[in-house]
Design brief:
This is DoxX family protein. The chain is mostly helical. Helix content is about 75%, strand content about 0%.
């Protein structure tokens, strides 16, 4: 197994495991702890503010459990070779939503969502099991 293949598998594992962890955290923690303070602070800078006020805040618990379930299910899908592209596609959409919600108010979230979104975009197209790298030889 080449070093590139190992590196891509490791990145995919970290990406999927991170979303599984985030989903479980959202199941176990009240949305008033992990969602309300951060999103309220970011509301003036997000283009999704009307949607958040109308749909997310009135249904906090259901939204938190649904988001946690989506993150766990598709984080696990990213870890399986067969459903890798499906999991990566859904997680890419989630990263874009998080980017537009929190990214403008919190620079560390901006960077994290860009990195995770880029990784998910890569995992939609690239299957680490079939990556072959052959270095060019000087002639």
């Amino acid at each position: 197994m080449s070093l590139l293949k190992i590196w891509l598998q490791l990145l995919r594992f970290i990406d999927g495991a991170y979303f599984v962890w985030r989903g479980i955290h959202k199941w176990l923690t009240s949305p008033t702890v992990w969602l309300v303070p951060r999103v309220t602070k970011a509301l003036p800078t997000t283009p999704l503010a009307p949607f958040i006020r109308a749909w997310v805040f009135p249904h906090l618990v259901a939204f938190g459990l649904t988001l946690g379930t989506i993150e766990v299910v598709f984080g696990l899908a990213l870890l399986t070779p067969r459903f890798r592209a499906v999991g990566a596609s859904v997680l890419l959409v989630l990263n874009a939503l998080f980017f537009f919600t929190l990214g403008f108010a919190e620079p560390h979230d901006l960077a994290l969502n860009l990195i995770m979104g880029t990784l998910n975009l890569m995992f939609i197209r690239v299957d680490p099991r079939f990556v072959h790298y052959t270095p060019k030889r000087n002639q």
